[in-house]
Amino acid sequence: MIVTLDGPAGAGKSTIARKLADRLGFAFLDTGAMYRAVTLAALRNRGPWDDPDALADLARECRIELDRSHVRLNDEDVSAAIRTNEVNTHIHYLADNPAVRERMVELQRAVAAGQNTVTEGRDQGTIAFPNAECKVFLTASPEERAKRRVLELQSRGEQISVEEVLAQQNDRDHRDSTRAVGRLEPASDAIQVSTDGMSADEVVERLVTIVSEKTKQTNG
Ligand code: C5P
What we know:
Elements: E1 2-6, H1 13-24, E2 27-30, H2 31-44, H3 52-61, E3 64-66, E4 71-73, E5 76-77, H4 85-95, H5 98-112, E6 117-121, H6 124-128, E7 134-139, H7 142-155, H8 162-178, E8 191-194, H9 200-219
Parallel strand pairs: 1-6, 1-7, 2-6, 7-8
Antiparallel strand pairs: 3-4, 4-5
């Protein structure tokens, strides 16, 4: 069974998807980490930012491996290095590139093949796994999302104001929801869940119920 969890940055997807996968005993796939890893590779390569074909070649050459808690880029553990603000502000060069997205979707399908998986991203229910048995679209208000992002960045030692994060977030939301391929939007058969005012555990409980209802429908 594939459970897709899509939604904007800061809706709590990563934490919730990980906990949900643990609860269900499913594999967990953080597709944002894949885009982050190729962005890190591009930063080290100094782009070239104005050459989409070169960026696509770079994405094809990268070896990305993910397990539950680590991301490896060409055998190097980059789990922390992909979470910087520099990666956040350059990721659109890769995420807006259709050839890069094609490569990422190919990898996502290969990783999920043959195993029960909770996969988390922007286009998992629409593009990567259109036939997934259970699709969820998580949302939260922009202010709540920005506050969560500031706390996350602060815990990694980066100082940044809520206003600055909110401005960057609006920019990323706009890019994510208007890109030509793989844009952020709920699949027509996705269940939308707002996480405002809910703890991660409360959201996970709600999702466990949704998954078990879907499982009954699929089996019955
Ligand atoms: O989820 P996370 O914040 O780590 O994702 C980082 C960025 O990667 C997002 O802002 C989005 O631009 C891109 N992304 C994407 N498609 C996905 C996952 C992430 O375009 N499936």
